[in-house]
Specification:
With about 140 residues, this protein is an alpha/beta fold. The chain has five helices and seven strands, in the order E-H-E-E-E-H-E-H-E-H-H-E.
Length: about 140
Amino acid sequence: MKTIMLAYDGEPASQPALERAAELAKALAARLIVTSVAPVQIGGPRTAGPLEPGSLEEHARELADARSYLEGLGVQAEYIEATGEPANAIVTLADEHQAEMIIVGTHGRNLVERLLGQSVSEAVARKASVDVLIAH
């Protein structure tokens, strides 16, 4: 495995994903790409509005936190800020960078949230053409 894509959002639930990505990148001497996606507001089916307020600043902080953690472990990575629908953006970036694995965390959504399609990790797993590791 040469390239791993990590989707990181700074939430406590994404910490295990960050840890697994660091472990795998070190063990496999793989290129690690870390992304944080600033989501767009969804107004209804097929409509998207501007970025959610504070999104750009927030995901820049998320990437800075991930960088601090990874550098503390001696893991080098590339950091990419993205915007859009999170699952689509993650899968697109993974494809563009020829990642062979995507690592995401899970927020433990309840059944209703999953039925409404609000689980980014499940959407990534469904849409990706490469292996997806969902860290708990």
